[in-house]
Design brief:
Distance between the termini: 38 Å
Strand content: under 5%
Low-confidence stretches: 1-6
Number of strands: 0
Radius of gyration: 19 Å
């Protein structure tokens, strides 16, 4: 996908993945269980709002669907699964015994990497999360993992379309909410 001469959606989408998500996912397998993860998620949600052209009142489950980017928690889990798979393959790495034969849990407040080593299929988990989410007009999207119709429209039309999908637009009722 080229950036120059492409439509706004493709360039904004690829720029978001290149700049925001790469910075947010740096060393993601180490810190996803941190209490500060929500602060990173706020910035990633802001980036998805920018791509999709939606407002702040848009429900969070809609953002990954409209921007065609996996939810941040699932992306972090995939990065962790990839790291664990790599560690298991390399016998000479000093951390392999800690993953395969984890030490006893001494502090119950710690959320250690080896407590959840089951790999997760991101696409199926995302579909499951979408079906269980209680958001307005969720019936409009059957598969959240694919680009939604109209993704390559000009920005103004794409934003209006997404605001209709989510029922979150510039109106008096929405302004009173915030």
């Amino acid at each position: 996908m080229k950036l120059a001469g492409s439509t706004w959606g493709a360039s904004a989408w690829s720029s978001a993945l290149a700049f925001c998500y790469s910075a947010a996912e740096y060393c993601a397998p180490v810190w996803p269980r941190s209490t500060h993860t929500s602060q990173v998620d706020v910035q990633l949600n802001s980036t998805m709002r920018l791509i999709s052209g939606t407002l702040c009142s848009t429900p969070l489950p809609w953002l990954p669907v409209l921007s065609n980017i996996e939810p941040p928690a699932l992306r972090r889990k995939a990065a962790t699964d990839k790291l664990v798979e790599k560690i298991v393959k390399h016998d000479s790495w000093p951390m392999q015994p800690d993953i395969l034969n984890p030490p006893l849990l001494q502090l119950t407040s710690r959320k250690l990497l080896w407590l959840d080593l089951r790999p997760v299929d991101i696409k199926s988990r995302w579909r499951h999360n979408w079906k269980s989410a209680q958001v307005v007009n969720s019936h409009l999207v059957h598969d959240p993992t694919i680009r939604q119709p109209g993704f390559d429209l000009p920005r103004q039309q794409w934003s209006v379309l997404n605001r209709f999908r989510t029922e979150q637009g510039h109106c008096g009722a929405c302004r009173r909410k915030w």
